[in-house]
Specification:
Elements: H1 4-25, E1 47-52, H2 54-57, H3 70-79, E2 86-91, H4 111-116, E3 121-125, H5 140-164, E4 168-173, H6 186-204, E5 207-210, H7 211-214, H8 233-247, E6 255-258, E7 261-263, E8 270-274, E9 277-278, E10 286-288, E11 293-300, E12 308-310, E13 314-320, E14 326-332, E15 335-336, E16 340-343, E17 349-353, E18 358-361
Parallel strand pairs: 1-2, 1-3, 3-4, 4-5
Antiparallel strand pairs: 6-7, 7-10, 8-9, 8-11, 11-12, 11-13, 13-14, 14-15, 14-18, 16-17
Length: about 375
């Protein structure tokens, strides 16, 4: 049987999502009640930058002041528990993530303001318009080049947002879209665009929101305008609910199983990182500590989607201890953990170290 903590970690995303759907049926949202389902405190979003294309901007449902876009609804949800949270809409219609494209977000008028905003949380929803670069006349080499550009420029965008601040970053897999006249095809989004975005998210170790699995006209046609690309007013609210539920999951932590083993929260897939770099091949629930550094893990949180949440950093520090000893101090996001053991030079356990987590080993 799972512990209360493990059960909460496994199912809190689903609980929040289902809760939001039930509340929408009655046109009522009691967001304050949502946070009680989590073992840890709700995520503090702070200043939130919603970066994206027309789906973020709210094309076709614009109002002034904005009362229709998903960023507007997201702010209302966040402020139920955190009145100081501020959401800014940096969406611009028709733009792509690729730098070399004529309609690149990098060249758009909201790019610089989005960076200068110095957000605490950044949500990036781009890629839908990049699907236009794949045509029936494209060669495999040309398609591969577009794939690589989407991945590389998503990674560069993630890095760029970390210059002014060190935000929590969520990148979105593009939602369902299908407009033949605009050459925006869902088959291309599924087979080319979203895999390229996911590769960037895994390489950089950031959170991934799989909009495609949660926002689909085949599930609910009323979420879309007639163009089958842009959210309706109802759809924008639903989009905000999806994003909000993922933000509330950004409280996961690595735990220490024994002296030299780290364990990820329960999930459906794992990728470990050390000092911000992907550890190739380390995709199990547990990880053996081989050297000092800052560890984290990307956890696939849902069996039927590609969404992933990255844990808080877990610091492993090593200093010189007594003669013949090495001293390993493990910190979870800056806090000393309890429950380590102390060893002599032959590796024998001496005593339980309850107040501070210090592990001694022979060099």
């Amino acid at each position: 049987m799972l512990s209360e903590r493990e059960t909460s970690s496994d199912f809190s995303f689903s609980i929040v999502y289902i809760y939001l759907m039930v509340m929408r049926k009655f046109d009522f949202l009691a967001m304050a009640a949502v946070t009680v389902t989590f073992a840890t405190s709700a995520f503090a979003a702070g200043k939130v930058a919603c970066v994206g294309n027309s789906i973020t901007y709210g094309y076709g449902i614009e109002s002034w002041p904005d009362q229709t876009s998903y960023p507007h609804h997201l702010q209302g949800m966040l402020r139920e528990n955190a009145p100081a949270d501020t959401v800014e809409n940096f969406g611009v219609s028709s733009l792509t993530v690729r730098k070399d494209d004529q309609a690149s977000y990098w060249k758009g008028h909201r790019f610089a303001p989005a960076i200068e905003f110095a957000a605490d949380t950044v949500i990036i929803e781009l890629g839908t318009n990049d699907s236009k670069a794949y045509t029936q006349w494209s060669t495999p080499a040309q398609n591969a080049a577009v794939d690589s550009a989407i991945t590389a420029d998503f990674e560069a965008l993630i890095d760029t947002f970390q210059v002014k601040s060190k935000p929590h970053i969520f990148i979105c897999l593009a939602p369902y879209v299908n407009n033949v006249n605009w050459n925006i095809l869902d088959s291309v989004v599924v087979s080319r665009v979203n895999p390229a975005i996911l590769r960037a998210g895994l390489e950089k170790g950031v959170n991934v929101i799989d909009l495609h699995s949660r926002f689909n006209a085949l599930e609910n046609r009323s979420w879309y305008l007639s163009d089958m690309v842009h959210p309706s007013v109802e759809g924008a609210k639903h989009l905000a609910e999806i994003v909000y539920s993922h933000l509330q999951m950004d409280t996961l932590h690595v735990t220490q199983v024994d002296n030299l083993t780290l364990k990820a929260p329960k999930g459906f897939g794992y990728q470990w990182y050390k000092d911000g770099k992907l550890l190739k091949g380390d995709t199990l629930e547990t990880l053996a500590i081989k050297s000092v550094g800052k560890y984290k893990v990307s956890v696939k949180i849902d069996e039927k989607s590609l969404s992933r949440i990255v844990t808080a950093p877990f610091d492993v520090l090593e200093t010189t201890g007594l003669p013949g000893f090495g001293q390993k101090i493990v910190r979870d996001h800056g806090k000393l953990e309890n429950g380590a053991h102390r060893f002599d030079v032959r590796g024998r356990a001496l005593q339980k170290q309850r107040k501070y987590q210090k592990v001694y080993r022979k060099y």
